[in-house]
Each structure stands twice: as C-alpha cells, then as structure tokens.
Design goal:
6 helices; single chain; alpha+beta; 200 residues; 30% strand
Length: 200
C-alpha cells in the first residue's frame, strides 16, 4: 500500500469550502460563469483532490450532482470551484441544475486528505471513512465516502457499485489489472439549504 498525505482543514476552512462551492454553483447556474475562488484560505493553496456533492431536499430528496477527483494537481480552491460547476452541469446526473432548484439544494465538499492504493480493498476499507476509485484501461469510476453507509452496502457491494459506475463488471475490482484506490476525506456539508455547516 502506498500513501499520499495532504491537507487538514479547520472547521472555518470547511465552512468556507462549502460556501465557495455554493457560490460557484450559483454563479454558473444563474450567469453561466466560472466563479473565481475569491478569498482563499491558506489551506486552499494545497494541491489535493476534492469532491462536491449537490442534493435536493424536494420530495424524497435525490442526488442532483457529484463531481471531483481524488488526485489533485490544482490548488484546492480551484478544484472545489471546478467540481461544483461540473456537479451542477448536465454532465453529472444528466440534467443541469436550474435557478429554481438552488434554494432546495444542500452542498457538501469532501477534501481529500489521504489516498491509499490497495490490493486488498475489503480488508483495508472502513465503510463511511473511505471513498473508492477504480481505474482500468481508461475506464474509471468513484463513489463518495458516505454513500455505502447511506445505502447500507457491504464492502463488496460498494466495490461492485463503483465498478459498475466505471462501466466494468461488478467483480472487476478483484482483477490484477484493475487499480483500486481508497481515499479519505474531510466532509463538510450544509445542514439545510444555505444553512450552517457541519463536519461529518
């Protein structure tokens, strides 16, 4: 197993990360523009991966978008902005977020702080702590750390779902030529749309 250490966000950093993601989503949805990160906290200059997740609170609630990457060559602040825009676009869940939806969306940000390349993901994984990314010959997919707990999945089902998302057979994670990375991240989210931030 190889490891990559990264950023450690304070609560204030996390709250600003969520705020930054919301600003980026709103600027993109309302004006079709990319928001510049603006006031960058020191932690946002770290080069690490991040994910932004948008969930609707309407009806039974649903995932409206999720985008990002576990490896970051860009500064965290820019990764958050770009991920937020992609999450709100039609590339994410098939339909673009509309201005009318903004007041019903909760925003969460996962800042990647550790990545582990594993050859035994079931043994190495801690459900609720690790996100999973698979990569095989140009096909790749990943899922957010909280997803298996929200859906009551086992480690094997979580891995199978990530493989399917990547367009691979469900058991592809067991193949020697498929890379499986586990990533840990600090997750901050709005308790309610445009509300206060909590760390998970």
């Amino acid at each position: 197993m190889s490891q990559v250490q990264s950023v450690d966000l304070s609560y204030e950093d996390g709250a600003r990360a969520v705020e930054l993601a919301r600003e980026a989503v709103e600027s993109y949805v309302r004006n079709g523009q990319r928001e510049q990160p603006g006031s960058m906290r020191d932690a946002f200059y770290a080069r690490t991966g991040a994910f932004v997740r948008l969930e609707s609170t309407r009806g039974r609630g649903s995932l409206r978008g999720c985008s990002g990457g576990y490896q970051g060559n860009d500064q965290l602040g820019h990764v958050i902005v770009d991920s937020a825009i992609r999450a709100a676009s039609d590339d994410s869940c098939g339909s673009e977020v509309t201005p009318a939806e903004l007041s019903n969306l909760t925003v969460s940000v996962c800042a990647v702080c550790n990545v582990v390349l594993t050859d035994d993901p079931v043994a190495d994984m801690e459900l609720g702590t690790h996100g999973v990314a698979v990569d095989a010959g140009g096909k790749s997919g990943w899922l957010y750390p909280t997803v298996p707990v929200e859906n009551d999945w086992s480690e094997a089902e979580y891995l199978a779902r990530v493989c399917r998302k990547a367009g691979l057979p469900p058991n592809a994670w067991q193949d020697d030529d498929v890379m499986v990375n586990l990533f840990e991240g600090q997750i901050f989210r709005e308790r309610e749309p445009e509300g206060s931030t909590e760390e998970l």
